[in-house]
Specification:
The chain is α+β, with helices and mostly antiparallel strands and about 140 residues long. It has helices spanning about 20-35, 70-80, 105-120; strands at about 5-10, 10-15, 40-50, 50-55, 70, 105, 130-135, 135-144.
Amino acid sequence: MKSKKVFLVGKVHEVGPATIMSVQQEIQNDLDVLTDGHKVVVSIGIPNPKEIEVSFERMATDDLLKQDMINTVDADIITGEGLGDFRMPEPIPRAPFGTYFNCFIDQTEFIDCYKKSARALGASRMKDIKLEITPDCVKLKLTY
């Protein structure tokens, strides 16, 4: 598999068989900073030469899940929004300032913002992006 430039947790990373473990560790270090020690564990897999799967394991309750939606906390974990001074070139929609309740974004809208930001940051062009969200994991599947 030829390396792909993948936008994850505030940076574009070159991911390939030779770099997968070092990229995974770098992302884990950034996640530890982003989540202020709340444990989120990243794992990256290459199921076939045209696909990369990134899993973010975390514990959530069912009230953080809504059909066809992504929680803003999960969106921020994937994108790295708020890590240092990082801001996405194409920001995801936010609740009004001062809102303290849980917020959700339509998955299609999130994927659109993610794809546009990845392109603006110089990531490899993707054919398809899918999200799988469960109480203990958010999985991002990128197809090239």
